[in-house]
Amino acid sequence: MARLCYTWSMSGLNRSFSLDDWIDYLQTRITDSEYVPCYDARDYEDSATSPALFSAVVPVEMKSSILANEGWDIHFTDHMPGFNGSLSHHSPPPHYSRFCRRDGVEPLVVHRSFHGMREPFAEILEEFRLFHNLYPVLDDKVNKYMKLSHDGEEEVVAYSESDRVSIRQHHIKQYLPCKRACLVVYFDIREYYAQSMSEEEQHANHRHVVSEVLVLKQWAGNIPVTDGHRSYRMIMGARLIDGYSIERCGLWPYDEAEEEGEIAFVLHFDQDGNEVTAVCRGEKVITGQDYLTPVYFQQSVLDKYYDKPEIFSVSDGHLSCGYLWGMPIDNDRADVVSAYLGDLCKCLSYREKLHWLRHNVASKAGLSGTRFKRDFLVQAVNASRVDHCFKRELVSYHRRQQACRKKVYAALRKPDELLLKSIRIPSAETRDDASDVLLTTCILLVDLINPRALATYEGDGTIDRLEELFKCSSMEGWEEHVMFLRKLQRLRSKGKAHRPSSQFEKLMREYLDTQSYRSAVAGMLAKAVSYLQYMTEHQAEIEELLCN
After folding, report:
1. Which is deepest, 133, 339, 376, 452, by most CB within 10 Å?
2. Digit-coded pLDDT (tens) for 15-51
3. What DSSP designation does 446 have?
4. Distance set, CA 133 to CA 127, 170, 416, 429 (Å)
């Protein structure tokens, strides 16, 4: 796999390094690598080059002793909890330590083995995983260790298989200064040849390299014929990698040391056509405007958050990223999104502010009626935008339905909740965005109808069975809602769920009297709200029919 191949960019071809490649890599290229090969215990039966790699976190005071000889100071099996010393009167008393050592050396990758009765595997040091709060994600039989940034973005810190591990160098260098340590990559790399070597060739391949960061011994020789091999070259030694300064470790209080640049948000134009701006530096407004000064943005500013509902949540009047951060917003207008200047400065990271800046527009639109009533009249009012209304009504319906003995709709599961979070009136007039929302709405209103609850009613599909239930009732006005479900399903079939065709636009005009994708979505959501209100109003009568 290319991502675990030890190319310097970690994105090259998956090829084995020759011995000379390894020498060059260890001497000059390793510090340019995005990832560092920290562990390799693979079986290289089919390769002429056989590297074995192991890495350890070593106190900085031990640098000179590490470079004093090419031998390994720690081995694959030298890292289990236990005691040093003995009960003998001539030895130090037993001393328990995490890795059965007194010198503070710790493996960055722990080799776990079980005497041949279970498969061995590699495990990244627990303290390192907790330091960066990493979590594993299995991808194509490879564990990716992920980290969430303060903005909610995921980044891959390490790739781990049972017999090899690569870790992003940046995160290693953040960890090392907190331990007052350096990383040592121990290597034992051998290359085999089908021809014997002369004494001159063997002598030419003997050398000993020592620098401030590397100790490397190379030698060569002939061997009895084994699997077609008659000679070998090998290198053994250790490569040191220093960490950053403690100020760049990324943990509190040093995470506050980075200076943020100034960001100027456009507020509006003055009478002469000049932009009036407000400048943020960190959490402060340095141009004197009030905290509650509204700043306006295009609707598209929220697209990236809607597109990742597993990370972000855009609700009525609020934007959040899990429990990492949140910000009050005014998203109840049809034209713009707004936020208070003070909230923009205080709630968003610098990178997130830059995202909002790209969508910043000059406007005097004012607050939505909903936001004004909530913030200044202290009135608890619902949002008026139809996408907010739809989410509110659907959640309310499912909450009320929980008390019913038989339920028309299956309960919302986690994937369904994520779909619901992604619903919105599209920010742009595009077919795909409109089709996505209609497809999601159809899943929530048609696909989740519970066929088992309607089993006593005849019909080819769940909509037909629901119609039969209504016919057996004394309820009035249900016809328009059944027709809505059929139209919604028809639009879905002509939208993104199937091959694009002009039928989608034709049905938009026929059902909703519009050629605007955004208006079509708003119209269908309005009908969906009416349907959910009808179902809520008649919930008791529907339950009685289902239970009879």
Report:
1. 339
2. 467 888 899 999 988 988 899 999 988 776 656 778 8
3. I
4. 9, 15, 28, 41
Helices (H), 163-319: 169-179, 199-204, 303-306
Residue 58 amino acid letter:
V
**What's the pLDDT at 4?**
35
- Specify whether the CB–CB gap between 381 and 392 falls below 8 A: no
Percent of the chain residues past pLDDT 90, beyond the cut: 57
| CA atoms of 333 and 367, how far apart (whole Å) | 8
Provide the mean pLDDT of the chain. 87
**What is the 3-class SS of 481-533, one letter each residue?**
HHHHHHHHHHHHHHCCCCCCCCHHHHHHHHHHCCCCHHHHHHHHHHHHHHHHH
Provide the residue type at 146 as one letter: M
Residue 107 pLDDT greater than 50, yes or no: yes
CA–CA separation, 95 vs 115, rounded Å?
26
- CA dist 448 and 394 (Å) reads 12
Residue 229 has pLDDT above 60, yes or no: yes
Say if residue 178's pLDDT is above 70: yes
Beta bridge partners of 106: 57
How many residues comprise the chain?
548
User: Are the beta carbons of 125 and 111 closer than 8 angstroms?
Assistant: no
Query: In angstroms, what CA-CA distances link 230 with 195, 222, 379, 526?
Result: 5, 6, 87, 80
- Which residues are within 8 A (CB) of 243 and not within 5 positions of it... i.e. 6 or more apart? 172, 173, 174, 175, 176, 177, 181, 182, 183
Helices 479-494 + 517-537 axis angle, to 10: 140
This prediction's pTM: 0.79
Report the b/e string of 199-236 with b at 16+ CB within 10 A.
eeebeebeeeeeeebbbbbbebebeeeeeebebbbbbb
pLDDT band at 1 (very low <50, low <70, confident <90, very high): very low
Structure tokens given for 332: 């109840």
Q: Can you list the positions of beta strands (E) in 353-418? A: 360-361
Q: What's the rounded Cα separation, in Å, for the pair 500 and 441?
A: 19
**Is the separation of the CB atoms in 36 and 241 below 8 Å?**
yes
Longest dimension (CA), the chain: 103
Which sequence spans correspond to the domains of the chain? 2-78+104-248, 259-376, 386-547
* Structure token pair of residue 165: 């591990």
**By the 8 A CB rule, do 189 and 200 touch?**
no
